[in-house]
Amino acid sequence: MKIRIHVLFLPVLMLFFCGLSFAKKGPVNINSESDIADLKKDAENNDRGAQYELSMVYAYKKDAEESLKWLLKSAESGFGKAGYVLSNLYFEGNAAVKKDFDAGLKWLTKSAENGYAKAQYNLGVLHYKGEKPLKKNYAEALKWLAASQKSKYNGENTDKMIADSEANIESEKKALAEKKKAPKEKKKAKKNKKSAGKNKKKK
């Protein structure tokens, strides 16, 4: 059964109408059966860029099952953009894919680990804001926001979130140090009190 994937429509437009190409052999003419046949051969030969493009072809043709099949193959092969698009499918959910935050986070993380800057930024923002069911994690936020910045991705408020994360990490370190220090101080005070009591008895 063919199901429309709305989330993929924008990447499809960018791919075929802005001259973008991720396959090794260059841009594909969406109206050329021979181009699509060649692309499928490359995809079947584990060209992960071709697998991603073939997924976009099927999304354009509104064949959700084949689109998802090749998108998954590309993402599993470590193609960062495919993992990012797949993560969005799971985060948003639609007729083809059930909404699943854990699956979305899994593919977003894999995409970030594979060096896709936009995924690094979005993963950093998730940890920074503590999007449910995630809790705020400033160390992870700093890690991924800094990685996106290093990858030259100009995400909104990146500098501010990095600075905030660094400040919060320092605050957390101080709070932890104080927490560890408190029992020692209490033990020391108890020891001094006991010692003072013995001295009084001697007098």
Describe this structure in words.
It contains nine helices and no strands. It has 203 residues and is an all-alpha fold. It has two domains: 1-111, Alpha Horseshoe (Serine Threonine Protein Phosphatase 5, Tetratricopeptide repeat), CATH 1.25.40.10; 115-184, Serine Threonine Protein Phosphatase 5, Tetratricopeptide repeat (Alpha Horseshoe). Residues 1-10 and 12-20 have low confidence and may be disordered.
Largest sheet: none
Backbone structural class: mainly alpha
Q: Radius of gyration from the CA trace?
A: 26 Å
Question: What's the number of structural domains?
Answer: 2
CATH architecture descriptor name of the largest domain = Alpha Horseshoe
Tag the structure with descriptive keywords.
203 residues, mainly alpha, Serine Threonine Protein Phosphatase 5, Tetratricopeptide repeat, 9 helices, 71% helix, elongated, disordered N terminus
Secondary structure elements and pairings:
Elements: H1 9-17, H2 33-44, H3 48-60, H4 64-76, H5 80-92, H6 101-113, H7 117-129, H8 138-150, H9 158-202
Helix pairs in contact: 1-3, 2-3, 3-4, 4-5, 5-6, 6-7, 7-8, 8-9
TL;DR?
By secondary structure, the protein is mainly alpha-helical.
